[in-house]
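Before relying on records like the one below, remember that each one covers exactly one chain. Contacts with other chains, cofactors or solvent are not represented anywhere in the record.
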Amino acid sequence: MVIGAVAAFLLAGPLTSFYKTHAVASRPQPSPSTTIDPHASPTTCPASLPMPKAPAASTPSTPSLPFPIWVNDPLGVNLRSAASATSTRLATLTQGTQATADGRAPDASGNTWYHITLGSQAGWVRSDFVVTSALHAASGSGWSLMLPQGYQVASSSNASLTTVSKTGDDLPFLVLQTTTSDTLTVQLPGLLRPDIAPVADHTATIAVWSVNPVTEQVSRVALDTCKVTSAWARPDQGWPFMSAVYVHTKGRNYEFSFFTAEPNSTIVKQVLDSVALS
């Protein structure tokens, strides 16, 4: 039974709710006018912080040639004789392969290609199948993915729950849950305020592994300032963005919950592009 709407609870009320399967069309949508009390509470810690303004859009920097690249696609990337998908395929580079990009060129469709050197091999790969930061592999029950340096999987005795943290950040970067049943109890970090409903930012249609389309729901969630006393000083100003992605395959259901300072995080996209599912 498909449970694509199970992630909708993230936008519908308290973060500790338990939901069974609902049709995707029945997803409730949150009100963007959630009222937040900006004043200090009478307790020993601050109340929830006022919601900050939307972060400024950032422009990805283009590295100077030459620079290292890593294959990020779970199916690998074709090494071709020219900067074109119709040119001769020289080899297929597996996920995680490192090479050096020493040239760059567009194709007729506007895609960017890198000319790379790998040992005695040389050729062209499309830039959207590689990344320019070092990667390492992580895997669990029915899934595998690639993480950038500085992102680590926390040890856990629960095979159905995986937490990925970024070095130096108390809030996890990713909470990944898996299940083979038709219900899912979504578990989110205890650093969030369970009594404040997420505030919707946007939704997007994406592809994960061979599943297409998949809905990505992005919202802002409130940190518990009693537990994160320096929340105001964070890049997200105490209101990180949560990107919730539910994926249903023939054998399993997956819930990805990412927490970032930006609503369109390039790291979230990079990780989702690297995912392989069973």
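Residues 215 and 247 are 9 Å apart (CA to CA).
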